[in-house]
Every structure is written in C-alpha cells, then in structure tokens.
Amino acid sequence: MPIDTLVLHYTGMLTARDAIDRLRDPAAKVSSHYVVEEDGTVWRLVNERRRAYHAGVSYWHGNTGLNDRSIGIEIVNPGHAYGYPDFPVLQLSVVCDLCLEILSRHAIAPRDIVAHSDIAPDRKEDPGEKFDWEGLARNGVGLWPEGAPDLGTGDAVRDTASLRDVRRALAAIGYRVAPEGPLDPALATVLRAFQRHWRPEAVTGQADAGTLARLLAVARLCAPARADTNR
C-alpha cells in the first residue's frame, strides 16, 4: 500500500555495529529501512518499496500494523537503558536531510512523521525527549506548535470535562485513547509519549497547564495536515 507514515527510532544498543548486526540478522525478525550513525553515516538496509519490521504492534490515526505503510529510520543512540546521551548535531542534520529526501518520494503528511513511542506508547520511549523534533519541524520535517506558551506544570486537570478535551486532542493528533475516563495509567502513558515528542521539558504523564496548552496547539496543527502533505 502507499507509504504515508515515517517513524523515527533510536537503536537502544551500545554500538552502531551491534544495532546493524541485529537489524541484518534474519533470526531477530526486526529491520529498518535506514540506520544513521553518530558521525552521520547512513546505511540503507531495506529498499523503500519493501516492508521493514520496525514498528511492531502499533497504531496511528486509526491504522494498525504500521510496518505495512511506513518507512523506519533507526538513529544510533544507546537509549534510556544505557545513559541516553545527547544526539550529535551532525547526526541530527543528516537525519533531517534523509527525512526530506524520503518526503520528496512519498506523500507523507507532517502529522504522520512520528516517534516509535507515539505509535507504541505502552512499549516504547524512543527516540525520546532529547531528540530535536522542534529543529526538524523548522526545516520542514513534521510539526511543531510555534508560539505555544510554556505555562509550567502546576496541578494536573482531573475533572471529567477537561479530561474529555485531553482525550479528544490526543485522538485528533493520532494516538489511540478511550473517549472517556479518568486520568488512569493508560492515559498517563499516552501523555508521556506526547510529552516526549512535543513537551520534552516535562515528561510526567500529567495533564498539567503547560501540557494542555501544547496539546491543544498540536491538535490544531493536525486538523488540516492530511490534505497538506510535505510534497
């Protein structure tokens, strides 16, 4: 089927060689289309016309099994389990250029350029809160809500009406959430995924004032994004 989603990951392994060896091992049953090393070296492991097994059990905008419709980029970084270092500037620049090349070949809407944690928030946290989503968006890759105020944290909203608005906004962005319910562990998990992508300064799982402002701003950006692709 047509490619309409771009998923960014970190490798979560100690070295680039470890990650590439695993992604090329048939017994591992995982793969990605590209790997970007810390020094900017790019490896193509799977042709874009073929399915790679990078997304796993996943959901975005009503679609499941996103391996069938997405391109996956693995960014070499040991991840949270191994200290989670910063992404080098050169590596981020190359990732941005690679994304732009992919967007020139596929009609992928800005809101469908996502983190692995966005499409599998109960399983994944990559590429994480240190990844420069804002910088990518300023260069034409993905979305970032310019001008959304940072209202701090404060108390999390817990009233039914406000939580209904939170859930609606998350669903409008693309996450799978129940339409009704309290601030339960499932909602907190999705909120942490949102925060890793769009509010990295406060990955708390709480629907605080700053998160609500950023959430509503991103939801507004997402509304027309299906028709307005990067092509």
Automatic annotation (TrEMBL):
A Gene Ontology annotation in the biological process aspect, one of them, is:
peptidoglycan catabolic process
Q: Which CDD domains match?
A: PGRP
Q: Which UniProt keywords apply?
A: Cell wall biogenesis/degradation, Hydrolase
InterPro entries in the record: Amidase/PGRP_sf, Amidase_domain, NAMLAA_amidase_2, Peptidoglycan-bd-like, PGBD-like_sf, PGBDSf
Q: By its UniProt entry, which Pfam families does this protein fall under? A: Amidase_2, PG_binding_1
Q: What class of enzyme is it?
A: hydrolase
Q: Which Gene3D superfamilies does this chain map to?
A: Peptidoglycan recognition protein-like, PGBD-like superfamily/PGBD
Q: What GO CC annotations are associated with the protein?
A: outer membrane
Q: Where is the N-acetylmuramoyl-L-alanine amidase domain?
A: 1-128
Q: Which reaction does it catalyse?
A: Hydrolyzes the link between N-acetylmuramoyl residues and L-amino acid residues in certain cell-wall glycopeptides
**Signal peptide extent:** none
Enzyme Commission (EC) number = 3.5.1.28
GO terms assigned for molecular function:
N-acetylmuramoyl-L-alanine amidase activity
The record's PANTHER family line, in alphabetical order, gives: N-ACETYLMURAMOYL-L-ALANINE AMIDASE AMID
What family does the Swiss-Prot or TrEMBL record give for this protein? Answer: Belongs to the N-acetylmuramoyl-L-alanine amidase 2 family.
> Protein name, please?
N-acetylmuramoyl-L-alanine amidase
The organism's taxonomic lineage, starting at the top:
Bacteria, Pseudomonadati, Pseudomonadota, Alphaproteobacteria, Acetobacterales
